[in-house]
Write a structure and sequence with these properties.
single chain, about 160 residues, alpha/beta, GMP Synthetase, Chain A, domain 3, four-stranded mixed β-sheet, two-stranded antiparallel ribbon, about 15% strand, elongated, mitochondrion, ribosomal protein
Length: about 160
């Protein structure tokens, strides 16, 4: 009961403090931190080449993860293309669970969609060929266009590490 009484006494002062406007005199911290990775104290976080370059180096040192022309002026189906790219990325990362060691790159040329990436040799060759055919067939059926997987393989995840931060 005493707590409720003390809260009633404190609330009017709190309401006044919230209603008053304050002037902030600190400078604006216009730091660009999106897409950048923080340096760890032990410098043990591995980064690939794609991750090591900040976003403002896109088209200078690294390429886009989706190549399409639908976002240009009067482009066809920009929203559908975006949703298809998200669906493709989720399907591929789910089908090739923990095998992709790089980002999934999607290139659209006319009506062909090419999906590229680097995978590790963690499964038998026979299973890998099955997954390639499975992925191409299902995505071709769902998206109603030819799909081609362009995969490179590496022995270990450490083979794609560019630097540690």
């Amino acid at each position: 009961m005493a707590l409720i009484v003390s809260l009633r006494n404190a609330l009017p002062g709190l309401e006044k403090a919230c209603i008053q406007r304050q002037i902030h005199v600190t400078p604006v911290a216009a730091k660009v931190v999106a897409g950048r990775y923080r340096v760890t104290t032990k410098r043990d976080r591995p980064l690939t080449y794609e991750m090591a370059n900040p976003p403002h180096y896109i088209a200078h040192r690294k390429g886009w993860n989706s190549w399409n022309t639908s976002n240009m002026t009067d482009g066809n189906r920009p929203a559908e293309t975006l949703l298809e790219d998200v669906f493709i990325r989720r399907f591929v990362t789910g089908t090739w669970h923990s095998l992709f060691v790089s980002e999934v790159i999607i290139k659209r040329q006319h009506n062909i969609i090419r999906i590229a990436g680097i995978i590790r040799r963690g499964i038998a060759t026979r299973k890998m060929y099955f997954l390639i055919g499975y992925t191409e067939e299902l995505l071709s059926y769902w998206l109603q266009c030819p799909i081609k997987l362009e995969l490179q393989t590496v022995d270990d995840r450490k083979d794609v590490i560019f630097k540690y931060i």
